[in-house]
Design goal:
Layout lengths: L3 E5 L3 H13 L3 E5 L2 H10 L4 E5 L7 H8 L7 E5 L4 H9 L4 E4 L4 H14 L1 H4 L8 E4 L2 E4 L4 E4 L2 E3 L3 H11 L8 H9 L6 H18 L9 E4 L3 E4 L5
Parallel strand pairs: 1-2, 1-3, 3-4, 4-5
Antiparallel strand pairs: 6-7, 7-8, 8-9, 10-11
């Protein structure tokens, strides 16, 4: 089955160019031209990845991203004509998976799509058919189906929150610096000092979701001045 891509941009010439290029590679492509339409399509249909412009009518790309992350962990690449670092940081903090600045080459965009899909469960499920479960205390992670429950209640994590938790939980006791987490979860292109703070933001949000008391975490712990680690799986 062909992978489905949603392209969201109010510049029709950009949409047309991306759509043509993606169709040539065998993707199924749906298009939206404003933020409200994008949220509706993502809510009603299944997509493997979304290309989302920042500057959109009705709802901005950041507003779309925030709303979508309330109900979906679909991978999202932000598209913007602005090269400001703050836009980049905001996109990462709100749950974007990658960020491409206009003008861009469609080949670059397709390369980013393939890299992200390789990191998601959609690409990994065929390689890991055996059930992969981690249980520590009241926390349960189903790695294959990307589901997390706490005391039996399902927790809705963004794709980056899940990937960061997965990395930490599959290497219990190992301390990862913020730079290491940034590069391993977001990619090596995110290396500026400003990018690193997004790790702290995601750790805080992750703790608010999976810890009984976020101010006294029992699962995702801090090693002072070094980084973060997951508690031992031993009971």
């Amino acid at each position: 089955m062909a992978l489905r891509v949603l392209v969201v941009d109010d510049e029709k010439i950009i949409v047309k160019g991306l759509r043509f290029s993606l169709l040539q590679d065998g993707y199924e492509v749906e298009c939206a031209y404003d933020g409200e339409e994008a949220v509706t399509l993502i809510r009603e249909q299944q997509f493997d990845i979304v290309l989302l412009d920042v500057m959109l009518p009705k709802l901005s790309g950041f507003e779309v991203l925030q709303q979508v992350r309330e109900f979906s962990d679909v991978p999202i690449i932000m598209l913007t004509a602005r090269g400001d670092d703050m836009d980049k940081i905001l996109g990462l903090d709100f749950g974007a998976d990658d960020y491409v600045t206009k003008p861009f080459n469609p080949l670059e965009v397709k390369g980013r799509i393939k890299a992200i899909l390789r990191r998601t469960s959609r690409a990994r499920k065929a390689e890991a058919p055996v059930e992969n479960i981690i249980e520590v205390g009241d926390l349960r992670m189903d790695l294959d189906n990307r589901r997390v429950t706490l005391s039996g209640k399902e927790i809705n994590l963004t794709s980056k929150e899940f990937e960061m938790l997965e990395l930490l939980a599959t290497h219990p006791g190992k301390v990862y610096s913020r730079v290491m987490l940034l590069q391993m979860v977001w990619g090596k292109e995110y290396q500026s000092p400003g990018d690193v703070r997004t790790v702290d933001v995601h750790i805080r949000r992750l703790r608010e979701k999976i810890e009984h008391n976020a101010s006294d975490p029992q699962y995702v712990l801090t090693k002072w001045k070094l980084g973060y680690y997951f508690k031992s799986h031993e009971k």
